[in-house]
Amino acid sequence: MMRYHHIVAPHYDDQMSMDLLHARMIGEYLRRTGINRVVEVGCCWGVSTAAVLEALTWHGCAASYVAIDPEIKPTVRTMLDDAAMHGVDIVALEQRSLDDDALNKLVDSSTAVILDGDHDYAVVREETDRCLLNLPACIIYHDCGGTGGGLPGPSAVFQDTEGSWNFGGVRYRLLGDRLARPGMRTERGLGFADSTEIGICRDFGAAIALKALGADWSGSGPFPTYWESRDTQARWRGCR
To answer: How is residue 82 annotated by DSSP?
Structure first.
């Protein structure tokens, strides 16, 4: 996220922003899988958007990104303009969710969809079911499986457990992570429903977290939880 660090840095601590390590996990996932089409529902200040766009500009030609949010903020628009100048096909839609028109035009088997907009269960369930009709490469959920309360949709849909879905003959492996929110008595979760077979595995989770923080890791589990203190945040902000 070095490319857009200066744009989103003032919003790293905002309670509406995605944790930086989780944003970096998404970026590394896109690099590893080669997925270069992303639809992001819910951008807020753009912390996750920064990681996605950096990965897409790294991919180069034929990359595309769709931002869907009721209010696309100036920080996000600045990054979209820059990515467009570097060859990423950009679409910005100021709406709450994926409607049928956007879904059919923008989501296919080569697309990663990030769901981080409306967190009501009925909305997330509908978004998931409609996305699965187009068999995307991956659906990524933010705010799932954490202990913060008030985010029942992603938690209930994803359930933050390892396992799999089978839909339309496609198997989606499920893997989730939770990070403590500094200064808050809560956790926030990130979940992947991945069909690529190469994108998500325990070793991959360890590797991308290690790369993100330049740290050693000898623990177990799908993703190590590094973000325990302000010191760790400071290390991450150095964009190692």
So the answer is: H
